[in-house]
Amino acid sequence: MVKLGYKLMSEEHAPRDLVRNLVLAEQAGFDLAAISDHFSPWVEEQGHAPFAWSVLGACAQATSRIGLMTAVTCPIMRYHPAIIAQAAATLGLLSDDRFVLGLGAGERLNEHVVGEGWPGVGERHERLSEALDIIQGLLEGELSNYRGAYFTLDQATLYDRPERKPLVAVAAGGPEAARLAGRKGDALVVTEPKPELIEAFESVGGEGPRYAEVSMCWAPTEREAQETAHRLFRWALTGWPVQAELPTTRGFAAATRHVTPEAVAQQVTCGPSAELHLTSIRKFIEAGYDHIILTQVGPRQAEFIAFFERELAPRLRG
């Protein structure tokens, strides 16, 4: 059966609101919740960027059933992989084994803040590969020393580590990253309904959950939803090669200056129609993804969660 998830957009909501939204999501029957880990919002209109790991700790204590996940965090610049392993192990314990660690190669927007520059895509993938070795080894309790081209580990031990290792899910936008997820991860994360990413993941022995994020904007009218999605989510139309490289919200404002609400609505389903949103969601299910994370754009989170419980969940689970 397909598992249904809720996205905690840390770029759009203050930390207390994120926790309150998660409590509502658990009550409404969502199976899991994923949080973005950003130092900066994509555009100024979003207005938030709390520390995801602090929010996750609060979420673990505020809920009892719903799964928790990073979607995704970047362990190659802003954090050393050992710190992410320690954080994941702690969340595994605090959540009673409800936590999944989602990892990706990151964006300049969030990683350049530590002043170490921003490498090209090839080096980013090499760094992520090393980070996966370190994180998996520490979480399994089988690694304490490591010397790679980019990272070193010196007599490291996780003293608080759950008996069941948290799954490590790896984000992929193309076949190369999907194969990396298959070789070194426990699950796959995508944002497009591409069956070829699953094929690449499985071609190297990858198995486990296949997560997909689906963006939407529920509102009482289609026009309101389009305007909200344009104001807060137009950055997504720049495409991954741009999203990974721009360093500031000003850059994303300039890159999306000519994007219209109608153009955003071509990528983000907008309005009160359940059938419209279901059509978009089903594309991912038909492509083979079994964990669907719904991203509701904008402030109407409680209304969306009620809409999910009333209109979406029964039809997706039925």
UniProtKB/TrEMBL annotation:
Question: Transmembrane segments in this chain: where?
Answer: none
Entries under InterPro entries matching the protein: F420-G6PD/mer (IPR050564), F420_G6P_DH-rel (IPR019945), Luciferase-like_dom (IPR011251), Luciferase-like_sf (IPR036661)
Q: Name one Pfam family in it.
A: Bac_luciferase
Record's keyword terms, sorted: Oxidoreductase
What region holds the Luciferase-like domain?
10-291
Descriptive protein name: LLM class F420-dependent oxidoreductase
What is the organism of origin for this protein?
A: Paracraurococcus ruber
